[in-house]
Design a protein that fits this description.
Blueprint (H helix, E strand, L loop, with lengths): L3 E2 L5 E2 L8 E3 L2 H9 L6 E4 L7 H4 L3 E2 L8 H6 L4 E5 L5 H9 L4 E4 L4 H15 L2 H23 L4 E8 L3 E3 L5 H8 L2 E3 L10 E2 L1 H7 L3 E5 L20 H4 L3 E4 L2 H4 L4 H8 L8
Parallel strand pairs: 3-4, 3-6, 4-5, 6-7, 8-10, 8-12, 12-13
Antiparallel strand pairs: 1-2, 8-9, 9-11
Length: 270
């Protein structure tokens, strides 16, 4: 295969499709399985839990931020897949220094997530399957984005952490998923990618919808009470504070389909 360039700027040309893959990203693990590569997966992280029937049989190599590099090397992978945001550069460089091919991803929009499927297909010799999946997702993406564009975007606050409260800026995958599905991130103008905010600042932005996902922070029903002092905020006043599964908002790959089909309902407030 000809050399491909990954998100870290490194060129990679594999002599043959990989037969032993280590995935350092949970959503990528799921994507690889969707491409028919479950048997080729040699190792996954402790946080790779989908598909459950596949990952329970795989070697665990630690967390995304603290993988056991020696264990990865012992698995003799012919490809490791990492992510700019989820994994550490020094770990990628160590693996490459040992002669292990590493492919680094960094999708920051839904379109990027679809394009990543095609890249993985080209890299792993599953191009036809990847094209079928990506093509269907692309058509759905364009349909949902066009439908969202025909109505005013709904102001939304998407929390990712508590104490301190944190949210997403414009240069994030979550922001773009909200946008495509009809939401307008109320902190899109924040200079940081993951800004720290106060609930008073959230209230001042007057979101019509507040989303509390179960990852990376696990929001629970008890946390709804945090918004009680802000009864005049539209989302609070109208009962539009939702505890949600975080995966549709942040996982790249085949899960995009379910996200695009279901998330727009959160912003159907007319």
């Amino acid at each position: 295969m000809s050399a491909l360039v990954d998100a870290s700027g490194a060129a990679l040309a594999l002599p043959r499709p990989p037969r032993r893959i280590v995935s350092l990203v949970p959503s990528t693990t799921e994507t690889l399985c969707a491409l028919g590569l479950a048997e080729a997966l040699a190792g996954v992280t402790a946080y790779c839990r989908e598909p459950a029937d596949v990952v329970r049989t795989k070697s665990r190599i630690g967390g995304e931020k603290d993988p056991d590099l020696d264990r990865i090397r012992a698995l003799a992978p012919d490809l490791v897949i990492a992510n700019v945001e989820e994994n550490r550069r020094e770990h990628v460089e160590t693996l490459r220094g040992w002669g292990i091919p590493v492919w680094v991803t960094y999708p920051r929009t839904v379109a990027d997530g679809i394009r990543m499927i095609r890249e993985l297909g080209a890299l792993t010799g599953t191009g036809a399957r990847a094209e079928a999946l990506a093509g269907a997702l692309e058509a759905l993406h364009d349909e949902v984005a066009a439908r969202s564009a025909r109505r005013p975007p709904v102001p939304v606050f998407y929390a990712i952490w508590r104490e301190p409260w944190m949210t997403v800026g414009a240069d994030t995958y979550v922001h773009d998923m909200l946008r495509v599905c009809g939401g307008a991130n109320v902190f899109a103008d924040a200079p940081a990618r993951y800004p720290t905010v106060t609930l008073a600042a959230v209230a001042a932005r007057r979101p019509a919808v507040i989303l509390l996902p179960d990852e990376p922070f696990r929001f629970r029903r008890a946390h709804l009470a945090d918004f009680t002092p802000y009864a005049d905020v539209p989302a609070v006043r109208d009962g539009r504070i939702h505890l949600v599964d975080g995966k549709p908002f942040s996982w790249h790959g085949p899960r995009i389909a379910g996200a695009l089909r279901t998330l727009p309902r959160l912003f159907d407030i007319a």
